[in-house]
Amino acid sequence: MTENGCEYRERVLTMDTMNPNVKRVEYAVRGPIVQRAVQIERELKMGIKKPFTEVIKANIGDCHAMGQKPITFFRQVLALCSYPDLLEDSKFPEDAKSRARRILQACGGGSLGAYSTSQGIEMVRQDVARYIERRDGGITCDPDNIYLSTGASDAIVTMLKLLVSGEGASRTGVMISIPQYPLYSAALAELGAVQISYYLDEDNCWSLDINELRRALQEAKKHCRPRALCIINPGNPTGQVQSRQCIEDVIRFAAEEHLFLMADEVYQDNVYADGCKFHSFKKVLFEMGMEYSQKVELASFHSTSKCYMGECGFRGGYMEVVNLDPEVKVQLTKLVSVRLCPPVPGQALLDVVVSPPQPDEPSYDTFMKERTDTLATLAEKASMTQEILNQVPGIKCNPVQGAMYTFPRIQLPPKAIQEAKEKGQAPDMFYCMKLLEEKGICLVPGSGFGQRDGTYHFRMTILPPKEKLKIVLAKIKEFHQHFVEQYS
Amino acid sequence: MYRLQSLAARSLIAGALDQCSPLTLTSLTGVRHKSQGPSVEKYGQMRFITAEAKVAAERLNGKIREKTLTMETLNPQVKAVEYAVRGPIVIKAGEIERYLEEGGTKPFSEVIKANIGDAHAMGQQPITFLRQVVALCTFPELMDSPSFPEDVKWRARRILQGCGGHSLGSYSASPGVECIRKDIASYIEQRDEGVPADWENIYLTTGASDGIMTILRLLVSGKDSSRTGVMIPIPQYPLYSAAISEMDAVQVNYYLDEDNCWALDINELHRAYQAAKQRCQPRVICIINPGNPTGQVQSKKCIEEVLHFAYEENLFVMSDEVYQDNVYAPDCQFHSFKKVLYEMGPEYFNSVELASFHSTSKGYTGECGFRGGYMEVINMDPEVKAQLVKLLSVRLCPPLAGQAAMDVIVNPPQPDELSFKQFHQEKSSVLGALAEKAKLTEQILNAVPGIKCNPVQGAMYAFPQIFIPPKAVEEAKALGMQPDMLYCLRLLEETGICVVPGSGFGQKDGTYHFRMTILPSTEKLKVLLGKVRDFHISFLKEYSALE
C-alpha cells in the first residue's frame, strides 16, 4: 500500500492489534446514523438538493441545541466566576454576585482556573449534601460521600471500574435494563465485564418487573458473578417513572442477592405524568429501616445536563455513595485523583443548581418563571408526542411519564425486515436511515438500546420547540405510513 | 504510595509510625475534623448509631454481611494505581491546613502546596482576554456591554456560532467544536512553520490527561509476553504509570540522564527496549517534553533520534507537549515532535504514528480548572480512527468552557487588535516571572549542601536530588516507607511545605529527590526555598549525629 507515493510499513495500531474491548464498545446515540446526519448537513450546506431543508437531530437529549434557553441566574453566576471584574457591574443582581463570590472563595487562588480537590470543591459538596437532605425529607447526607464528576457518565464509568474483577465464571456481571442507555453497555464492553440484561415490561408502561430481575440473575449466575444492578429512573430511553413500591422491591432484591446498586437519577426533575413522583433510591433505602439502610451499597448519580437547566456542555455532575467500604472509598478517591478534578465551571454550575435563588432574593421570580416554563413545556411536549404517535397505525407509544424521550414501538412489514437483513442492517436501523434520508429527521434505532427480539423501536427526544416537534411528528407519521405502504 | 496506608496500619500496632500518625489515623478511621459546620455533631451521632445498628442488624441476620465491594473484590488494577502528585502527602497537607484553620498551632502559619502545577492557586492571574471571551460565551447578554472590546466579542460570537443552539450548554460533537478544531490546526501549522495540520486529526479533550488515557486505551492489548509494553521516562509524570496500571499494560522504564541535565539517552532507550522485549511487546513510547518533573527541554537532535528509534522499532509515539510554551533557558527551544518528524522526510512523516498532547492548564494561561486540551493524531489507521471517535463519543464531549478556553489560546489577539497590548503584556509578565523563578530555584537549591538541582530549562518544576543520611534511610525503611517520603513528611510537618517525594515519579535506585513547583510568587518562593534549605541542613545534622 502506498500513501503520498511512499511505501509504508505495517502500522503499530491496527484493528488487529487494537484493544479488543474497544472494538466491542457500541454507542448508538452518536453512532453511524448521527455521522450520516452530519454528512447530510454538510451536503445541504454545499447546496445539494434534498427533500428537506434542515436536519433535525432528535437523537440526543441536547436541550440548548434544540433551542431551550439557559437559566439566566446560572449563567450570570458563571459569567461572574469566569470574569470577576464583572462583580463591579451594577447590571448583575446581588444574589448572583454573592453566589459567585462564595464559589470563588472556595476555589484555589479565588479562580475557576485552579484545580479543585479531586473529589470536588468541598463547599460545593456540602451544598450538594444539603440539597439531597432537602430533597429526601431530611435524611442525612454526608458531604464526604459526594464525588463531583465530569457529567454523570464519568462517575458511572468510575464506579463500574471499581466493581469489575474476576476471571471466567467469577467475572463481574452487571445487571442493566433493556432497553438501556448505551453508556452502560459501552462501559461494560470496555471494561470487559459481563452484561446481564433484564427486560422492562413494555406492556406495562416499561415498568420494572422483579420476577424478570430474578430470572435474569439466575440465568447469569451460571456464567458470571452478578455484583451490581443498574437502574435508570426516570427511564432513558423508556421514560417510565418508577413507583415507590417497585424501588423497595429492587432494594430488597439487591440486599438478598448481595448486589451493589447504581441508581442513575439524572432525570429526577423531569417527571410529567399525573400520579407519578420521583423517589430517590437513597430515600426509599433509608425509609426501609436500618436492616437495609446500613448495608445496601448504593451509588446514585445526578447531572447538570438534564432537568430544567439542560447544561450538557458544562459536564457537571455528582454521585453520592452510601455504605461504601471505607478502604474502597480511599481507592475511589485515589482513582479520581489521577484525572485531577472535574471541570471547575461545571462544579460552579452544579453549586447554583443545588442552591438556587430563594424567595427573598432578587432573582427568585425570574428563576422560578424560567424553571416552571421549561418544565411545563416539556410536560406538554411529552403528552403531545405520545398522543400524535399513538394515532399512527403501526406505532405504539407508552406514556412519557418522565425524562426526555419517547421510545415507541414500530411495526415493520416483513418485506422491510427482509431487505434490512439483506443489507446486514438491523431493521430499525434501516427504518431510521430511510427516515433520515427522506425527511431529514435523525432518530436512534431501538437496537442501539436493546429490545426484545422481533420488536422494533426508535428513540426520539421530545426537546424540539413545540412547533418544530409538531412538524417532526407529522413527518414521522407521513414517513411511517408511506414506509408501510411501500413494503406491504 | 497508597501502600503506605496499609503498611501504616500494620506498623501502627507496633507504634512505629508515630511521627506521621495524623495522616494514617485519619485516613484509617475516617475521623472528621470539627470545623465542618453545624452538622458535625450529627455526623458523629450518625456514625455512633450506625455502628450500633450495624451490630444489631448483623445479629438479627445471624451472620455478618460482607459488603459487595471490598478490597478483596475490588478491581485489582484499580488497587495497583498510584498517583503521588495527589497522594498521602497531599491528603496530610489538607489535614494540617484544616487543623490550622481550627486554631491549632504548628511551627508555621500556612501550608504551601508546592506539590502540583496549579498556577492560579499559587496566585498567578488569569489572562484577561481569555476570561473575557469565556464570560461572553457564558452570558451572551454581555455582547451589548460597552466594557468588552470588539476582538473579545468577535471571538465569543464565533465560538457560539460553532455551538449547538449557540450555547455553551449544548453538547459539542465528540471530537470537539468544529471551528475550534480548525483554529487548532491553523495554530499548529503556524507553530510548526507551515507543516500541514489537518483539523480532522485534532480531538479536543478534558485536559491532556484524558487524551493520553484514551490513546493508551486503544493501544493496550495482548496477553503475557505479547501484552503491550509502554515505554515511559523515569522520572515520569505519574499519570503514565497510573494509566498503565489501570489498563494492566506493562511499564517499560527508560531512565533520563540526571548527570546530563536529565537528557534522554538513545542508548538507554535501546537498552530498555531490548530488556523489555523478553516479557512484553513494546508498542508505544511516551515522551514528556519539556520534561515533567525534570524540567529538561529536548534538543532537536535528540527528538530526531527518538523518532528514528520509534521508526526502526515500530513504536507508536506519544509526545506530551503541554509545557511547550514554558521554556526558560536561553539556549533552549521547544521543537514539536510533529515538526521534527516532518523535517526528517516523507519516509518518516508518512509512517510514524504520533499523538501529541496540549492543554489549557500550563503555558502562560494556567487554566487547570477548565480541563481544556487537545491531541493531534497523525498516521493513525483510518479504521482505528473511527474506533477512537466511537470511544470518545461514549463520554459525549469535552467541557465546552474548556474548549472555548483552548480556542483563545490557539487564536490569541493579533498585533492589530484592541486587546493585543494588554494580552501581550500579561503573557510576557507571566512567562518572564516563571523564567526568573526557574533560575532562582536552581540557584538557591544548589547552594544547599546535599542538594543538587539541574537547571530548570522548562516546564514548572524543580526535581533536585537530595542526599539522605544512611540513618534516615534506615529509619524510613523501618517505618516501611520510602526515604524521600519520610523526608517530605518531615518537611511538611516542620515547615508546612508540601512537595512530592521523588519515589512517586520514579528514580534510580539509591537516589532520592523531590518535585516542587516553581509557581509560588517570587517572594513566597524565596521564603519557601529558605525554609527548604534550613530544613535540609537540620535534617542532615540530626541524622548525621546519629552515625
Automatic annotation (TrEMBL), chain A:
Q: Where in the cell is it found?
A: Cytoplasm
| Essential cofactor(s) | pyridoxal 5'-phosphate
Q: Which reaction does it catalyse?
A: L-alanine + 2-oxoglutarate = pyruvate + L-glutamate
The UniProt keyword set, sorted, is: Acetylation, Aminotransferase, Cytoplasm, Phosphoprotein, Pyridoxal phosphate, Transferase
- In the UniProt record, does the keyword Amino-acid biosynthesis occur? no
Q: EC class of this enzyme?
A: transferase
Q: Name one Pfam family in it.
A: Aminotran_1_2
Q: Under which pathway is this protein filed?
A: Amino-acid degradation; L-alanine degradation via transaminase pathway; pyruvate from L-alanine: step 1/1
Instruction: State the Gene3D superfamilies in the record.
Output: 1.10.287.1970, Aspartate Aminotransferase, domain 1, Type I PLP-dependent aspartate aminotransferase-like (Major domain)
Q: Membrane-crossing residues?
A: none
Annotated signal sequence range: none
Q: What is its EC number?
A: 2.6.1.2
Single GO MF descriptor: L-alanine:2-oxoglutarate aminotransferase activity
Domain of life per record: Eukaryota
Q: Write down the CDD domains for this protein, in alphabetical order.
A: AAT_like
A GO cellular component annotated for this chain's UniProt record is: cytoplasm
What broad class describes the main subcellular location of this protein?
cytoplasm
The record describes its quaternary structure and partners as: Homodimer.
> Family assignment?
Belongs to the class-I pyridoxal-phosphate-dependent aminotransferase family. Alanine aminotransferase subfamily.
The function of this protein is: Catalyzes the reversible transamination between alanine and 2-oxoglutarate to form pyruvate and glutamate. Participates in cellular nitrogen metabolism and also in liver gluconeogenesis starting with precursors transported from skeletal muscles.
What is the name of this protein? Alanine aminotransferase 1
UniProtKB/TrEMBL annotation, chain B:
UniProt keyword list: Aminotransferase, Pyridoxal phosphate, Transferase
Give the matching Pfam families. Answer: Aminotran_1_2
Q: Name one GO cellular component term.
A: cytoplasm
UniProt cross-references to InterPro entries, sorted A to Z: ALAT1/2-like (IPR045088), Aminotransferase_I/II_large (IPR004839), PyrdxlP-dep_Trfase (IPR015424), PyrdxlP-dep_Trfase_major (IPR015421), PyrdxlP-dep_Trfase_small (IPR015422)
* Required co-factors: pyridoxal 5'-phosphate
Q: List the Gene Ontology MF annotations in alphabetical order.
A: L-alanine:2-oxoglutarate aminotransferase activity; pyridoxal phosphate binding
Q: What family is reported?
A: Belongs to the class-I pyridoxal-phosphate-dependent aminotransferase family. Alanine aminotransferase subfamily.
State what protein this is by name. Answer: alanine transaminase
Q: Which organism is it from?
A: Cirrhinus molitorella
